[in-house]
Amino acid sequence: xxxxxxxxxxxxxxxxxxxxxxxxxxxxxxxxxxxxxxxxxxxxxxxxxxxxxxxxxxxxxxxxxxxxxxxxxxxxxxxxxxxxxxxxxxxxxxxxxxxxxxxxxxxxxxxxxxxxxxxxxxxxxxxxxxxxxxxxxxxxxxxxxxxxxxxxxxxxxxxxxxxxxxxxxxxxxxxxxxxxxxxxxxxxxxxxxxxxxxxxxxxxxxxxxxxxxxxxxxxxxxxxxxxxxxxxxxxxxx
Length: 238
What we know:
mainly beta, five-stranded mixed beta sheet, eight-stranded mixed beta sheet
């Protein structure tokens, strides 16, 4: 007589009871190049299986991505197609089930290649006048900007100043200000530079103080000829 043995498992692949959601994988910071596809992961455990939603946070405003065909949610991941510089910012992943909720955030930085140039690229200025050089920049992110002269760091003072709008101002120009000026921009991945050649010319002879030139004769009958800032005195002979 055979006996039939019946085996019954008392364990379940599902947990006994509900478990609050817990986010186990995400990235705090992501950097990607302009125009690329960006993937923001958010993996959560819990029971019942938690739902995952993504939002963009601007100040206190949380914006969802409903009806946005370029930015989509796929199995807990936020996918940004053809990323632009404007996509840089803070993104929030929110997971919840019947037992609770948890959220984390990811900071996305979309980069663009750095470029720099100086306007004007070549200039001639006169001693005693002023000079302005503007560093035109593009790309992102730009962490800081630095000026150099003849490949050496430019020393700033009360006469040579760097304005907040990337403009270098030089007052009361001197002959020693002549040279090649460069502006460098940097971020953690790359740098770029622009350059400008500055030539300094001295004062024109016509800008010298008045001078008197005299030709003397026995008869003191002067005839005066006036030139530009030069007085010529000639005495006529009898």
